[in-house]
From TrEMBL:
One of its GO terms (molecular function) is endonuclease activity. This is HNH endonuclease. Keywords: Endonuclease, Hydrolase, Nuclease. It comes from the Bacteria.
C-alpha cells in the first residue's frame, strides 16, 4: 500500500510523520462536517500561520487556491525540496493582522 500524498506539497506522508486533517472550509465558518484533507503537519501549520479563518473561508477553500497564494507557493517550493519526514518547530513569520 502506498503512503498518502499531501495534496498541498505533493510529497508522500509516510507512517510516523506528523500529519493532520485540514477542514477546507473552516469549522468556525460553517465547515464542520465538510471536506477534510490529510496534510503534513508542517503544511497545515503554514496554512494557518498565513491565512485567517475568514480568508480561508472566503478565498482559499480549495487546494488549488491555497497553492496559488504567494506565501504558500513559496513555502511549497521550499518544503518540496525536503524529505517527506522533514519537521520544523518554527514556521515562518506569522501573518500581519
Amino acid at each position: 500500500m502506498q503512503d498518502p500524498i499531501c495534496p498541498l506539497c505533493g510529497r508522500p506522508i509516510p507512517p510516523g510523520v506528523p500529519q493532520s486533517l485540514h477542514h477546507l472550509m473552516p469549522k468556525l465558518k460553517g465547515g464542520k462536517g465538510g471536506p477534510l484533507v490529510l496534510l503534513h503537519d508542517i503544511c497545515h501549520r503554514e496554512i494557518h500561520a498565513t491565512l485567517t479563518e475568514a480568508e480561508l473561508a472566503r478565498d482559499y477553500a480549495t487546494i488549488p487556491a491555497l497553492q496559488a497564494h504567494p506565501r504558500l507557493a513559496k513555502f511549497i517550493a521550499w518544503v518540496g525540496k525536503r524529505p517527506p519526514g522533514f519537521r520544523s518547530k518554527v514556521p515562518g513569520k506569522r501573518r500581519k493582522r
